[in-house]
Amino acid sequence: MRLLIVNPNISESLSQLMEDTARRAAAPGTEITMLTAPFGVEYIETRFEAIIGAYAAATMVAEHAAGHDAVVIAAFGDPGLAGIREILDVPVIGVTEAALASACLLGSRFSIVAISRRITAWYRESVEQNGLIGRLASIRSLDRPLGDVASVQTDNAARLKELCMDAIEHDGADVIIPAGAPLSGLARTIAADVPVPLVDSVSSAVRHAESLVAMKTGAARAGSFARPPTKPVKGLPEPLMRLMRGA
Q1: Which of 71, 106, 148, 199 is 20 to 30 A distant from 97 in Cα terms?
Q2: Side-chain half-sphere of 33: how many Cα atoms within 13 Å?
Q3: pLDDT tens column, 11-20
Q4: Can you name the CATH fold of 2-96+203-244?
Q5: pTM here?
């Protein structure tokens, strides 16, 4: 199968981190195309930045989705996921929903470990939108200014482990989700030091995408995720207009 992974952030280093994680998780024979947003912000942290990221994801999908069997939106919070799912006939998976689904299969309550306090409000809303707020034990986050986002894991290694342990010991978490592109792969590297399951969001999205393709579920021809009606469009990039016209 061919899997398209789109990073709605502009950071090439984060794309490389996620691509490495995705390739570790993918089944033999899965081909991965990794794309980085050509415009936007270094990493999405707020609701407004998520709007920009959603548009960036939509433009990348319009240009490159053809010939792929599934698409992954690779930013925690899944910017643009629902709309992109409407417009494509292949499975579209968000790293957030994939991680949450995996966490729910591993325990009753999960906690999210995030890279900043500002990002936690958007993450909480993402959990609510997925209908799982009752299973959220906590969101714990780093509370210091970030340097290079690509080195968040190494710069804050000890503190990230402490946050995981706090979520377990004080919040009752059965599962930990290290959230966001800068923490891709962290679950693998600290698994021996954390006594509950850790869920990597990119790895989850890759494996869920592979499963849905193998299941041959078919595309939505009715319901709320059926393709939007064709109507006049103006001023959009040509690939987006073609996609909206059903070409």
Answers
A1: 148
A2: 16
A3: 999 999 999 9
A4: Rossmann fold (3.40.50)
A5: 0.93
